[in-house]
Design goal:
4% helix; Pentapeptide repeat-containing protein; 20 strands; seven-stranded parallel beta sheet; 41% strand; mainly beta
Length: 157
């Protein structure tokens, strides 16, 4: 089952539980996705052709993976201490309007970042000498993205 053509003011782990495991959203507008300090998310999440105005995913482990495809994600994203995924994290053909801060993420399973636009860039491959660089333990596919993915810092300034 999927949620289609719907407006959501907010989406949290409690909301996902209330939807009885429905984690496939298509053609939705979501003002805020807030998954902060959740750690283990044990359901696969898929968002297609959605507009997400604020994405907060600090300390969030997508154990069953996450797919973002053809979405527009507005604003700064602070993804600290993330990864730990047992299933793939797939980012396809999205537009990220703000800086994407990947800080101390440990990706255990496959990560695919393909044909995305990072308007303000990301530090996915940056901060190498800082002691909190991201690690990839499995297959990493990065191709045809627009924007710098190897910036240093946290996107402030």
């Amino acid at each position: 089952m999927m949620v289609e053509k719907y407006y959501l003011k907010s989406l949290s782990l409690n909301d996902l539980k209330a939807l009885n495991g429905v984690c496939h959203f298509a053609d939705c507008v979501i003002d805020q996705v807030e998954l902060i300090g959740v750690f283990d998310i044990d359901v696969p999440i898929k968002m297609e052709r959605c507009i997400i105005n604020e994405l907060k995913i600090h300390s969030c482990w997508f154990n069953e993976g996450i797919t973002l495809k053809n979405c527009i994600i507005n604003g700064y994203i602070d993804y600290q201490m993330g990864g730990h995924n047992k299933k793939p994290i797939l980012l396809y053909q999205n537009v990220f309007t703000g800086f994407v801060n990947f800080f101390d993420c440990q990706f255990a399973s496959r990560v695919e970042i393909v044909e995305n636009v990072f308007v303000r860039g990301a530090n996915l491959f940056g901060n190498l000498n800082e002691g909190f660089a991201n690690t990839f333990e499995s297959e990493l596919i990065v191709s045809k993205n627009i924007g710098d993915l190897d910036l240093d810092g946290f996107g402030f300034g």
